[in-house]
Write a structure and sequence with these properties.
The chain is of the alpha+beta class. It contains three helices and four strands. It has a single domain, classed as 3-Layer(aba) Sandwich (Glutaredoxin), CATH 3.40.30.10. The protein has a four-stranded mixed β-sheet with strand order 2-1-3-4, covered by helices on one side. Strand 1, helix 1 and strand 2 form a beta-alpha-beta unit.
Length: about 100
């Protein structure tokens, strides 16, 4: 699932995006699950409607919702809260998010 694009170096505040589509019931749950992870860490989530971004719609049409961290897709359909929290805490601590 992970797609290495040019991501910022570890040790910064990660950019978290939730790719959604209107009327998506999985997106509603993903918002709740992602917020429960990001709020305690003080990380903002940017929601992107893929229907307004054709490039993202073409790439992720069958995977919505998608959680991207620093531009890298990390989860789709359902948010694995433990995994996302480990990734975010690792980045905040200056570790490579690919390391356990």
């Amino acid at each position: 699932m992970e797609d290495r694009e040019s991501a910022p170096a570890p040790g910064h505040t990660p950019t978290v995006e939730l790719l959604t589509s209107p009327g998506c019931h999985l997106c509603d749950q993903a918002r709740i699950d992602l917020k429960s992870v990001t709020d305690p860490l003080g990380i903002e989530v940017t929601e992107i409607n893929v229907e307004e971004r054709l490039d993202l719609l073409k790439r992720h049409a069958e995977e919505i919702p998608v959680v991207r961290v620093d531009g890298v897709p990390r989860d789709f359909w359902r948010v694995d809260q433990g995994r996302i929290e480990r990734i975010l805490r690792g980045i905040l601590a200056g570790r490579d998010p690919e390391e356990p």
